[in-house]
Q: What sequence folds into this?
């Protein structure tokens, strides 16, 4: 066994995946399966797919990984043999990083890189695009030769968490000899216009439901409760900014990192930080209102609706300053012409009202819940 590099230099995971494909997997495919049509990519779960991986990521499920997508008939005919062939023929390491992944616990599916003398337990997925999309997003494979699903319907879009859409459209495609993967990624790159308007309306509606609670909690002496509500509102504002920028919001671990990449985030970061770190209600309210007005101005500049007054104002007769965000929700809702969307309550897509990772990973339950809301 070739000893591993004791301290391999960190490479972004997408670079490592590209090297694995170009230097190891492609030569095997060319020699053993000449003429095979396939796509080679690195998409799906993993911090590297969204560009957030660091040296810390190497402690689990990170390393030389690749996704091979064959046509459905080829995946059925050759998938298992190809997986075994790669186990026998792949190099033991790429740029010092082992291609073998062990499971620390048989009941734990998380893999950890480790040198080996025998065949490698690799992380090269062999699948077809339609089957992969069904497993990840609940989309049904289409009847065509490539298995590409039909264009998503409204309920399909609402049942797909943004994290999974980001994983599907992020990452990198190194080769696509079939074309199905490229077409699907283009189709899922962003929401249709009417769905986008609906989700924006729902996000403003979420803010309207709690913006007065920051003051009400403080009024009864619950500064902790006031701070917790402020944190929720900051999270909703960050997700709203990503929606406005046409960027899928990742789950909690990477939400702040994704937000910080947005144009104009530098201007919003100080007031958002101020809102979550403020020690009293007046400061908390002031920072939140500054943020409301800035994001409301972004909404107005989008041109999706007639401009709505972005200024703060009292919450009815109570001494709390708010935006009355429902005004923006209503303006957006009125701009929607699709009858199915117009008939829906302003609840939105699944991850606008649910954030349990275990739930969002159960496609059948997610779809049933989305259907029940309408």
A:
């Amino acid at each position: 066994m070739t000893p591993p590099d004791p301290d391999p230099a960190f490479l972004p995971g997408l670079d490592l995946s590209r090297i694995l494909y170009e230097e190891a997997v492609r030569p095997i495919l060319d020699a053993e399966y000449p003429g095979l049509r396939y796509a080679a990519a690195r998409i799906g779960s993993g911090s590297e797919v969204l560009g957030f991986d660091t040296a810390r990521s190497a402690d689990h499920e990170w390393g030389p990984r690749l996704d091979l997508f064959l046509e459905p008939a080829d995946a059925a005919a050759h998938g298992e043999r190809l997986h075994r062939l790669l186990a026998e023929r792949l190099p033991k390491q790429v740029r010092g990083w082992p291609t073998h992944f062990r499971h620390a616990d048989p009941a734990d599916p998380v893999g950890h890189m480790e040198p080996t003398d025998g065949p490698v337990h690799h992380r090269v997925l062999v699948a077809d695009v339609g089957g992969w999309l069904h497993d990840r997003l609940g989309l049904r494979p289409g009847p065509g030769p490539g298995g590409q699903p039909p264009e998503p319907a409204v309920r399909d879009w609402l049942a797909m968490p943004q994290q999974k859409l980001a994983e599907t459209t992020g990452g990198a495609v190194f080769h696509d000899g079939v074309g199905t993967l490229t077409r699907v990624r283009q189709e899922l790159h962003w929401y249709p216009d009417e769905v986008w308007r609906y989700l924006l309306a729902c996000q403003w509606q979420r803010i309207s439901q709690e913006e007065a609670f920051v003051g009400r909690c403080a009024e009864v002496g619950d500064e902790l409760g006031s701070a917790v509500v402020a944190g929720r509102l900051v999270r909703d504002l960050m997700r709203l900014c990503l929606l406005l920028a046409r960027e899928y919001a990742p789950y909690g671990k990477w939400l702040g990192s994704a937000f910080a990449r947005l144009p104009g985030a530098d201007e919003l970061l100080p007031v958002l930080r101020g809102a979550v770190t403020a020690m009293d209600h007046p400061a908390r309210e002031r920072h939140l209102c500054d943020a409301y007005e800035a994001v409301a101005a972004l909404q107005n500049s989008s041109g999706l609706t007639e401009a709505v007054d972005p200024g703060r104002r009292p919450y009815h007769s109570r001494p709390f300053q708010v935006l009355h965000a429902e005004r923006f929700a209503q303006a957006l809702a009125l701009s929607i012409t699709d009858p199915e969307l117009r008939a829906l309550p302003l609840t939105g897509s699944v991850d606008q009202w649910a954030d349990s990772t275990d739930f969002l990973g159960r496609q059948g339950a997610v779809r049933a819940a989305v259907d029940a809301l309408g």
Remarks:
- Residues 13-187 form one domain.
